[in-house]
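Hi support team,

I'm opening this ticket because the web form for multi-chain structure prediction keeps timing out on my end. I have pasted the exact lines I submitted so you can reproduce it. The total is 493 residues across two entries, so I didn't expect it to be a heavy job. Is there a limit I'm missing, or should I split the entries? Thanks in advance, R.K.
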Amino acid sequence: MRLAFVGIQLKRLYRLVLLPFILTACILLAGLLLEGSWSPGRIRPVMMALTQVPVIAAGLSTAFVLNGDPIVELTESTPTGWRKVQVTRLLIITGAFLAAAGLLFIGLHLMRLWPRDQGWVSIITPVGSIFIVNCLVFLIAVLTMSMPTSSLASIAIWLFLCFIWDPYITDPVRQRLVPMIIAAAGAIFGWKICSDAERNVVKVAAL
Amino acid sequence: MFISIDHLTKDFRGRPAALNDLTVDLPQGMIGLIGPNGAGKTTLMRILTGIIKPTKGKVFIDGQDLSSPANRRNLKRHLGYLPQHITPYDNLTPLEFLDYIGILKMIDNKHVRQEQAHTLLEQVGLEDVMNQPIGGLSGGMRRRVGIAQALMGGPQLLVVDEPTAGLDPEERMRFRTLLAQLGQDRTVILSTHILDDVAQTCPWVCVLRFGRKQYDGPTEGLIHEAAGHTWVTPPIAAPPDNATIINAEPTPQGTRYRIVTDTPPAGSVETAPNLEDGYMALASER
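Hello R.K., no limit was hit. The queue was backed up. Here is the completed structure from your submission:
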C-alpha cells in the first residue's frame, strides 16, 4: 500500500487516532491517583468499569470512520476503489485502539490494578475485545452503510461480550479466541462484499 | 477515445431494465446525453466509468472490452468522473481535496499532484479560495471543485452527470465554456436536462428513453426532427390540442404558444426549430 495513501487517510482520522491514547492516559492517571488513597480491592471494580470505555469508544469510532463518506461513487471510479479506502481506515483506527489497549493493560498490570489479572496472558482481554468489536462493526458498516446501525451494533456487541459472554467464560484465551475467530471470519466476509462497487454505490444512493 | 456500446442491458432486481439492448457508437469530442428521468443515463455513465457491470452486452473503449477487470482498472487510470451528487469533504481545502483525489487516482509524485491541483484550480477560477475550507464555498464553487477533481491526472475520457444543475446563469455559462474547451482534445460525455447546454457545447447527441436509444447523431440532426413542425400561435385563450407545447408567453390578448405539431391552429407562423423543439418532436413520436 502506498505511503501517500495511508498518510492522507491518517491525516483525515488523526483526531480519532489520538482518542484511544488520551483515554488510556486518563485511565492510567485515575489508577495512579486512586492507588495512593484506595485499596487495590476497592480500585479494581472502578478499573473494571473504566477499562470498558476504550472498547465502547473503539466501536463508536469505527462506526463513525466507516460510514457517511460523501464520495463513495467518486472513489469507485478511481483505480483505488472504495474497499481499499475502507480497509485502510479500519486498519488505522483498529491499530490505534489496539496499541492503546496494550499500553493500558501494561500500565494497569504493572500497578496490579488490572481486573481479573491472570498474568501477561490477560492482555488478550482488552486487545481481543477491540479486535472483535471493530471487525464486526466493519461487517455491519459494509452491509448497511449506516452510521446509526453500525453504532448500535457496536454497543450490542460490547453488551454481549461484557454481560453475556465474559462472566461465563473466565479463561482469558478461550474467552477471546472463539469470538475473535468468528469476528475475523465476519471481517473477511465484509471485505469480500466491499469489493462489489455496484452494491456500494447503489446502497449509498438509496440512503 | 472512441466508445462502442454493443447490445447493452442492465437489470436491477425488481425494477424495469435500466438499459434495454442499447447499441450506440460515440465519437471523440463533446457528446450530450439527454433523456427524461429514468431513461438510464446515470446507469449508462456508471457502466462507462467501470463502476457497475452490465447484465448483458459489452462496452468497448478504444477497442478495449470493459468486461475484463484489467481493462476496467486501466480505464479508471484515464478517466475523470463528476457524479451527479458530489459533496467534497467540507473540512478540506480545494487544494487538499484535489491532492486526495490525485492519490486515489494513483498519481504518486507529490509535486506532480500539487502542480496539477494548482493549475486546475486556476483553470476553474478558484485560485483565490484554493486554501479555504470547501465548507465555506458557494454551490457553484463546489461544482467547480468537482470538475477540477475530475480533471486530475489529465483524463482522456471525462464523464459529467448534471454538472450545471443548481448553478446560477453566470456559473453555468462559465462551466459550459470550460467543458467545450475540454472537449477539444478528449471525449466528454455530458448528461443533462438542460438542453441549452447541449445545444451550445455538443456537436453529437444521444437521446435515451426507457433504457433504449431514441436518437444518436449530430445535434443538428436532432434539431432537424422538428423542422416544418415548429409553430408560434397567435395569442389564444386555451392551449391548442394535439400539440406539444414548448413554451407559453402571456400577452394582453391571450397566450402565445410555441408548439410542435403537424396540425397548428389557424394563424400560426412556422418558425425555425431549436434543440428543445427537436427533442420534444422526437419525444412525441414514440
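A quick check on our side: Chain B has a mean pLDDT of 91. Let us know if the file doesn't open in your viewer.
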